[in-house]
Each structure stands twice: as structure tokens, then as C-alpha cells.
Amino acid sequence: MNTDTTFAPLIELSGVNKHFGALHVLQDIELTVGRGEVVVVIGPSGSGKSTLCRAINRLEPIESGTITIDGRPLPAEGKGLAALRAEVGMVFQSFNLFAHKTVLENVTLAQLKVRRRGRAEAEAKGRALLERVGLASQADKYPAQLSGGQQQRVAIARALAMDPKALLFDEPTSALDPEMINEVLDVMRALATEGMTMVVVTHEMGFARSAAHRVVFMADGRIIEDRPPEEFFSSPRSERARDFLSKILKH
């Protein structure tokens, strides 16, 4: 999985800064994610990982610097921003499914409203994607009838329904019970193998080792290391990364 393939740039961040009050949460971020590349972002709590992920599709506006997707600057607002969010899907920690809609309705709604697909086409695509994430039999249930792992797989299917150029995952397994984590990671590994461009904020080091092309280690709002996983895990260069790994890999 971890090869030295050169990827054409799809997501580019240059000189990106973001504050929350006095807290400088993103400091001069430089990051390029290639088409078909899987970049896993790790680091201690409060290091800026989730803010970085959310900035890529402007869920968090930045104060300075540039972000481009497929060569185009990130739109500030309006229809351009809505179009971008269809191109760059987001999977959240907390699923964010519509509780009053069935699983199939959750996966078809944005197809109808944003992609303007016909209902028959949207439902056919939705059912195919639910099959892909192992949930074809759950199409007519409501989110509350599913386990957390199943809900997160529905959220992934919903994101895929938009035919995105890239997917952003913001700690997608952190709200799950341990026995449900692998069912979500298995879907993500399959997407990685199929060539989906992915930026994944996670604490799952096994996924980082097995599925990432690069590991980005953040601390104090900065990117400290950006290296292939086998290099990062076997010989971290920074004291911060060594300290982080010594704590997280003990357990």
C-alpha cells in the first residue's frame, strides 16, 4: 500500500493560519494532498488536527493563506461553496444523520437537492452504496435502530453518493464502541485501496500504518512531521513525535 508513487496535487494549503481568540490553532500550514493519496493526520489533543480537516472544505474559515481544491481557490460562500462541499465529502465523529429519515433517504437527499438527480437514479445509487458498506438490508430503518458503527457506515455511503473528488474524515471512530471500530475502518481501507483521496484525522495507529501513504504529525497548531508511515513509526525525527508515540503505542 505505501508506495513512492507521485500523486498529482488535488488539495493544497499554503501559509494557512487560524486563531480561536488568543489561541493560534493553525500556524503557517503547508500541506499538499495528491489525487488518490491517503494522508492520515495524528497528534495530541488540541494540536489543530480537526481544525485543519474542517478548514479544507471551509467549515472553519481561515484568516490568512490559501487553500485550493483541484487548482481552484476555496470559495468564500454561496453556490460555489456548496458545489465545493459536494466535491469534498466530510465524515464527522458524530454521524450527523437525519433522525427522522430512513437510511436510504439519508443517502439520497443530497443527491436530489444538490446533484439534481432523479429519484429513481438517486435511490439506485443509494442502494448500491449501502450494499458496498454492508448495509443493504438496513435501507428502510431509521438511524436510531442502527448501531454506531452502522450509522457511521451510512454516513460514509452518504458522502460517497455525491461522487466526491476527496473525502475528509474527522475522527470517524472516536465515538464508537471498540467492537464497532473495525467495521468502519474496513470500509475506509477498501476506499483507500480503490484510490479515493482521503484526509483522515484519527487515533487509530493501525489504520495509519496499513492504509496511509503519508502520516502528518501535528502539535501546537503546526505540522511537525510529514513522512511515509513506516519511516514515521520506526524513527520519528522530533522529540514531540517520539513522546506522543511512546504514550499512544504503550496501550
From TrEMBL:
Coiled-coil regions listed: none
Chief subcellular location: membrane
Cited PROSITE patterns: ABC_TRANSPORTER_1, ABC_TRANSPORTER_2
Alphabetic keyword roster: Amino-acid transport, ATP-binding, Cell membrane, Membrane, Nucleotide-binding, Transport
SUPFAM superfamilies given in the database record: P-loop containing nucleoside triphosphate hydrolases
Membrane topology reported for the UniProt record: Peripheral membrane protein
Pfam name, any one: ABC_tran
Keyword Cell membrane included in the entry's annotation: yes
UniProt xrefs under InterPro entries: AAA+_ATPase, ABC_ATPase_HisP-typ, ABC_transporter-like_ATP-bd, ABC_transporter-like_CS, MetN_ABC_transporter-like, P-loop_NTPase
Protein localization: Cell membrane
Keyword Nucleotide-binding assigned: yes
Domain ABC transporter: start-end pairs: 11-245
GO MF, any single term: ATP binding
Family, similarity comment: Belongs to the ABC transporter superfamily.
Protein name stated in the entry: Amino acid ABC transporter ATP-binding protein
Originating species: Kitasatospora nipponensis
